[in-house]
Design brief:
Structural class: alpha/beta
Strand content: 15-25%
Radius of gyration: 19 Å
Number of domains: 1
Distance between the termini: 45 Å
Order of helices and strands: HEEEEHEEEEHEEEEHEEE
Largest sheet: 6 strands, mixed
Number of strands: 15
Shape: globular
Length: about 325
């Protein structure tokens, strides 16, 4: 059986169950997501996702330095931020012993430059955001966090020194919602096995300004009245998937969307799920298994938002907007 991240009791590994409570604003939220010009939910399979490198006790440890950005680079990457003075708030290293990184490892080539490392023998994970591999083989990262693979997979806001108006990225988490990058990631071995046994992670461009709910512990949303990060979206569990032209792998993902749902964890330029980047598994690819657009065959009208938990009003100070 394929491994799954986090303890069996983790929030991420709990099915939704029968007759869940639907949020009173579900239709409003889904209508908002249906306005996405790029269409219904797609899957990031090559870029804007996370390569996951498996390591062991024999993998050399590499010191990961803090990556310094100029003001121009920060503003180019986050043109809606209204404050960037906090950008160097995180520690210079997140593991003083260094991080076990294979010499062939590379971060995701897209702008977020995520990368994660897992050691199943020690049940330890490291994940990073805005990673740069230097010509000499050393690494620098804008931030990083380490956690247990057999732990809850959930952080608390109080775990970090982040203040309202700042980005949580610079205090450890590489997801804007303050959740592990591994949480909800679609892995090749579990798709090949025929079923996912965990919630998915998703992102939208319509995330609420300074509103988040568990399991998120922060947000970078910037839309007034948007969908809070941490919200769980479910594909109608009674929907007959055979009516849609999906690959076998896409049906596996769709069934998980029905059974476990997807957690809103980040801002994106579309409605997106995350599948691991197979640049971490040389010789393997998603060809014939998943496509970036296959799941878009399912219209947004078949989705719903589950009852939101307590809404926390804090987060990144991106400019709020109504459109």
């Amino acid at each position: 059986m394929a491994k799954r991240f986090f303890a069996n009791s983790s929030f991420w590994n709990q099915p939704i169950g029968n007759d869940p409570e639907i949020d009173p604003r579900s239709s409003e939220f889904i209508e908002l997501l249906a306005g996405e010009p790029n269409g219904p939910f797609g899957i990031n399979i090559e870029r804007w996702t996370v390569p996951v490198y498996e390591v062991s006790s024999t993998t050399p440890r590499v010191r990961v330095a803090r990556r310094a950005y100029s003001d121009e680079e920060i503003l180019a990457a986050h043109d809606k931020w209204i404050g960037v003075g906090h950008r160097f708030a995180h520690a210079a290293e997140f593991d003083v012993r260094g991080v076990p990184i294979p010499d062939y490892a590379q971060p995701d080539p897209a702008g977020d430059a995520h990368m994660a490392v897992v050691d199943w023998s020690r049940m330890q994970a490291w994940d990073m955001w805005a990673v740069k591999k230097n010509p000499d083989g050393s690494f620098a990262s804008n931030t990083g966090v380490t956690y247990r693979l057999d732990g809850p997979g959930v952080f608390k806001t109080s775990d970090f020194q982040v203040k309202d108006g700042e980005s949580i990225h610079f205090y450890g988490p590489s997801r804007a919602a303050g959740v592990p990058a591994l949480a909800g990631l679609i892995m090749l071995d579990e798709v090949a096995e025929g079923h996912l046994r965990h919630k998915l992670a998703c992102a939208t461009r319509f995330n609420a300004y300074k509103e988040f709910v568990f399991p998120a512990c922060w947000t970078d949303g910037h839309r007034d009245g948007g969908l809070p990060e941490g919200a769980v979206i479910q594909l109608d569990p009674g929907l007959d998937l055979s009516q849609f032209k999906l690959t076998a792998g896409e049906r596996v993902v769709a069934r998980a969307f029905q059974t476990y749902g997807a957690v809103n964890v980040d801002n994106a330029g579309g409605n997106s799920l995350y599948a691991e980047s197979l640049m971490s598994k040389p010789g393997k690819n998603w060809n014939g298994i998943l496509t970036a657009t296959g799941l878009m065959a399912i219209p947004m009208k078949h989705y719903r938002v589950l009852k939101l938990g307590e809404i926390i009003h804090m987060g990144d100070s991106r400019r709020s907007s109504k459109g």
